[in-house]
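User: For my dataset I need records formatted as: sequence, then structure tokens, nothing else. Please produce one.
Assistant:
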Amino acid sequence: MDDSILEKKIRTTLEKKSEEARVDALTSQRIRANVYGRIEEERNMKHRNWKKVVIAAAAICVFGSITAVALNKPIYISSHSSRNEMVRDYETAKSMMHGFDASAKVVEEFSNGYKFKEAVPKYESTHDEEHNMLEQETSMSFTYEKKGMEDVIFSSSRLTVPGGNPDEVLVLDDGTELGYHRMANKFVPPDYTPTEEELKLQEEGKLNIGYGSDKVQEKVSVSVYWVQDGVTYSLFSFNDSLTAEEMFQMAKEVAES
């Protein structure tokens, strides 16, 4: 199928699903903004993988790359990155991060064996309800690996704020609060119709449904969010074997670095 036709189908399908979902207009705007960002990213890549783009866009809409915040009026935050800018040297990635924000924290490896794998610049911008851009920011998203385990993604931002009620909270000696979240995720085909029970779980913030997979896939994600000196940090992974204690320890190692 021609790329332009497939792109149009992806846009149309995800727009339709975002409108059908029982969410407010702000959430719908956020979904579409990030889907479009991923489409633009993939358009610039030599070898395109639309299936991967759609699933990734669906995940990003929920897992903190964008967060609805309230300033003087409702706005949304869009975020995108490109693997064409991938950096695989830690010192280079750290230097780039501090070039964007000199006070941002990061570590090369964690005591549980996760080590730096790669990093990529992340471009964020805030928008008002008419989609006018208000602020822009560039930060870094770091990926850590451990043999036989799912990767862990670490990022920081001055535009996003933690959302939702954490399942567990750990308060550090300096008063910093670390919030742990565990989320059920269901990636489904574009024509999937959620059950009443699933819609209820979505409204309660206990389930994320992402459209774009060729078959139903279920995964559990874990994450920790915290704020220090105006910077929001996050650790995220589909490795649900990581316990709250282990995630808290990883977050603590960054927070106290």
